[in-house]
């Protein structure tokens, strides 16, 4: 909560590497906002709450928590098998198997599962950047 991408990371990386912060932010936003407004066979669904839950769960796995987010949403929206998959891919990618991939969201399209991968990998990258940039900030002060 005390070091976020929006408030701290973005501006520091732009100061160190001009324009890189903008490129990274655009990349994060494209993946975060990517949606077909469908879930499985249901069309016209607002998936923003689900996408936010996945993003925040990845950050939570890496020890980043936000006071203004209700983590009860994570438990309501993400089934256990999906949490296992997210944690495995984010923390132990070498342990990812086809079986783990097949166990979550069995009735969903592969494109939706690929979107999960994009979300979790970009959230993981942002989490790693936050830790690195926070260390740089502490070094500079």
TrEMBL record:
It comes from the Eukaryota. One of its GO terms (cellular component) is nucleus. GO terms for molecular function: L-leucine binding; oxidoreductase activity, acting on peroxide as acceptor. Pfam families: PA26. GO terms for biological process: cellular response to L-leucine; cellular response to leucine starvation; negative regulation of TORC1 signaling; positive regulation of macroautophagy; regulation of response to reactive oxygen species. This is SESN2 protein. It comes from Loxia curvirostra (Red crossbill). The gene is Sesn2_1.
